[in-house]
Amino acid sequence: MGRRPLGRRFGWLWAAYAVSAYGSGLGFGALPLIAVLALHASPAEVSALSAVGPAVGALIAVPLAPWVEFRRKRPVMITMDLTRFAAMATIPVAYAFGRLGFVQLLVISTLVAAAKIAFNAAGGAYLKALVRPDDLLVANARFESTNWSSIAVGPPLGGAAIGLFGPVTTVVADALSYLLSALSITAIRGREEAPQTTGKSPARAGASLDGWRHIMGHPGLRALYLNQMLVAGLIMATEPLLAVLLLRQLGFPPWQYGLAFAAPCLGGLIGARLARRVVARYGRHWVFRTIGTLRAIWLLGLAFVRPGIVGLVTVTAVELAIVINMSLYTPVLATYRLEHTPKHLVARTLSAWSIGQQASIAILTALAGLLADVTSPRTALTVAGLLILTSPLLLPRHDHTPQHEPEPAPDDGPAVTGTVDREGGSSGEA
Fold this sequence. Notes:
mainly alpha, 15 helices, 70% helix
C-alpha cells in the first residue's frame, strides 16, 4: 500500500497537508505557552484559551458549512490557509512591538479553529470528487500516517526551538506552513467546476443543519458519530489531567513527559499502514467493532501510573496501544463517512462531524477538570477510563454497507458535477 501510485495531484495535496501538519506539530500548544511565558496569564485564562477559542470557532463554523458546500473546494482551502497564515502572523509582529495581548490570542484561537473546520470540510469534499473509490482508504491512510509522524517529531523540536530562540518561534513556523500549504494547493492542476444548485436557495433556513440530519438519519454514521464524540472527548480530557499528575504530583521531568507522548506517535505509522490490509482480510465492520473496542480499553491504565521508570513505561505503553488502534481505525472511518455521504452534503456533514467532536472535547475536558479539582487527577482519570469502556456499546452492530450503494441525487442543495478529472490522483481529508 505504501508504494501505490496515486498521481501528481495527490502528491501536491499530500505535500500541502504534510507541511501544514508539521508546522502545527512544531507549534503544538504554542498559544497557551505564549500566554504563560510572555503574558503571565493566569490558569483560568490559559484554560479559556484552550477551550473557549476552539468552542467559539466551532460555532462560527456552523453557518460556514453551506458556504463551503456551494463553492469550489480548492479556492476555499486556499482561503482558509491564508486566513490562518494572516492570523498567526500577527502574533510575532505584535510581540516585536510589545503590543501582544490575551484578547488577541483568544481571537486568533477562534479564527484558526473555525478555519480548520472549514478547510477540513472542503478537503473532504475535494477528496470525494478527485480520488477513485478504490483509492479512498489508501489516501486516508497516508494522511493519517503523516499526521502521527508530525506529532511525534514536531513538539520535541518545537520545544527545543522555543528554548533557543524565544516563545514566538514556533508560531512563525506554523504561520509559514499555512502559506506553503496554500501554495501547494495552488500548484494542483485540473479543472474544478462550480457546484450546481438544484432550485432551492443555498442560504435557505436549516441548510447548516443538513449535515447533522444526514448523520443522524444514517444508522451506521449515527452510531459511529456518537461513539467518536465520546471516545475523542474522553481521550482528550485526560491530557491536562495527566500533565498535572505527571509533572506536579509524580515529579516527572519535562523531557520524560514529552517523550511519553511523542514516542508512541510513531505507532501511528504502523496502524495507518496496516489499515488497508486489515480491511481486505477481515472487513470494515470487523475493524469498527474490534479495533473500535481495542482503542477504548487502554485509557484506564493511565490511572495506575507510578513515579520513576515504571511510570514512564506505563504511560508510553498505554499511549502506544491507543495510537496504533486509533491510526488503524481513523482512515477506515474517514473512508466510510465519505462513501456514505452524497456529494452535495459532504462539506456540511464533515463540518457537523468536526463541530460535534470539538464540542464534546470542550465539555468533557471541562467536566474532567472540575472533577479533578473536587477529588484528584487520578480519580478523574479513573472515571474517564471507566466511562470510555462503555463506548463500544455505541458502535454499529450490523454492517450498513450494501454491496452497491448508488450515489443519491441531490434534492435540497447543490451537487458537484464533473469536479476535477480523475487521472489516477487522490487527495486526503486534511
